[in-house]
Design a protein that fits this description.
The protein is an alpha+beta fold and about 325 residues long. The protein has 3 domains: about 90 residues; about 80 residues, no CATH class; about 120 residues, Response regulator (Rossmann fold), CATH 3.40.50. It is built from 8 helices and 20 strands. Helix 1 packs across helix 2 and helix 4 packs across helix 8.
Length: about 325
């Protein structure tokens, strides 16, 4: 959907408030996980103090329906059909008497005499004794010999047994129980629903941001240079939100997880140089305009950076810092 066709007038006040808070946090993707508290969304933990997970999920799905978020299925969860809780546990029940006193039993065959029965009928003390011919088959923790002798036996499978009515069966019924409202239900009425992660499209970020605001990622390991650059940007008439990273890897991680209009990239960093970072950003599908910063007027670096797609190249100096706002404005308005 194009930016022009997205109209915030279609959003409720709650949806608009939530989306604004998400954009203000520079979040690009909202990832869910299932926990004891319900569905937890990475990056939104402080927001969930105002919305419980059910309400937050409803709002996120509504924003997706209105195409302000892009939903992608990541998991499925069993929910209580009565209260919608995700805190559900399951129990086996007997098909005959519906008791939950169900156990799994192993079936043992003693080939020497042909007797077949459940394991508990063989147990006598710490040994297995054939109930039919009384042969000692060895200790409980000993595996079958596998040699066809009189003392050998075979585990031929397993089944379920109801300790209440004695019924034995291959497939138990399954009941689900909600820990919150104690509702009991089966698969016929259980809510088995999709769980999504949500991506925030760039056009939505631009719509929801403060008018004229520009978000910048400054990747610079020299704290003095970082302070000077930040000072020149904040003193300009433009509205900048600046986030700092002091290494290449830190910068790449931030660029993958948050939205930025421009990256200011120092060429010399402790873990990799600017060219290596640009190459890595392509591999990670990071598509943010990059302005390369260097302490030396090296034309070779400039040419290489521009070939890799750098939006511009600036030699560090007080004069070039003064020009940064106009350079940034020109880039984001292209």
């Amino acid at each position: 959907m194009s930016q022009a066709s997205l109209k915030t007038s279609t959003l409720t006040d709650e949806e608009k408030s939530l989306l604004t808070r998400i954009v203000d946090k520079d979040i690009r993707e909202i990832t869910p996980s299932i926990s004891a508290e319900g569905i937890v969304y990475k990056g939104l933990t402080d927001i969930t103090e105002d919305y419980d997970w059910r309400k937050l999920r409803r709002l996120l799905n509504s924003l997706s329906d209105k195409e302000f978020l892009v939903a992608k299925e990541t998991d499925r969860a069993l929910l209580c059909p009565k209260c919608g809780a995700i805190h559900v546990f399951s129990k086996y029940t007997c098909p005959n008497c519906q008791s939950t006193e169900v156990i799994r039993v192993e079936l043992i065959e003693h080939p020497f005499c042909g007797y077949t029965g459940i394991k508990k009928n063989f147990i006598l003390g710490s040994s297995l004794i054939c109930p039919s011919c009384k042969t000692n088959l060895g200790s409980l923790d000993k595996r079958p010999l596998g040699n066809g002798s009189k003392e050998d036996y075979r585990i031929i499978g397993s089944s379920f047994e109801c300790e209440k009515c004695g019924n034995r069966f291959n497939k138990p019924n399954v009941l689900h129980i909600c820990k919150e409202c104690v509702a009991i239900f089966d698969y016929k009425i259980a809510r088995y629903e999709k769980i999504f992660n949500y991506e925030i499209p760039e056009q939505v970020i631009k719509i929801m941001r403060s008018p004229g605001e520009c978000t910048i990622l400054l990747i610079e390991d020299n704290p003095d240079d970082a302070k000077i650059i930040t000072r020149y940007l904040t003193k300009s008439r433009e509205l900048y939100r600046i986030e700092h990273a002091s290494s290449g890897e830190e910068g790449l991680e931030k660029a993958m997880n948050k939205y930025f209009d421009v990256i200011l990239l120092d060429y010399k960093l402790p873990d990799m140089n600017g060219i290596e970072i640009m190459e890595e950003s392509k591999k990670r599908n990071i598509h943010i305009p990059i302005i390369m910063l260097t302490g030396a007027d090296d034309r070779k670096i400039a040419v290489e950076a521009m070939k890799l797609g750098a939006a511009d190249y600036i030699v560090k100096s007080l004069d070039s810092y003064k020009k940064l706002p106009s350079v940034i404005k020109q880039i984001i308005n292209k």
